[in-house]
Amino acid sequence: MKRLRLAVCILVIVLLFGACGKKTEPAPLLEVICLDVGQGNSTLLRTGEGDVLIDAGPEAAQDALVRRLHALGVERFALVILTHPDEDHIGGADGVLREFPAERVWVNGAAEQNESSLRLDDALLRAGAAPEAVGAGDAVRLGEAVLTVLFPLRGQAEAGNEGSLVLKLHCGAFSMLVMGDAGGETEEWLLEHYDPVQLRASLLHVGHHGSNGSSGADFLRAVAPECAVISCGAANSYGHPDGRTLARLEAEGITVRRTDLEGEIRISADGEGYAFAKE
Question: What domains can you pick out in the chain, each with its CATH number?
Answer without folding.
Answer: 26-276 (3.60.15.10)
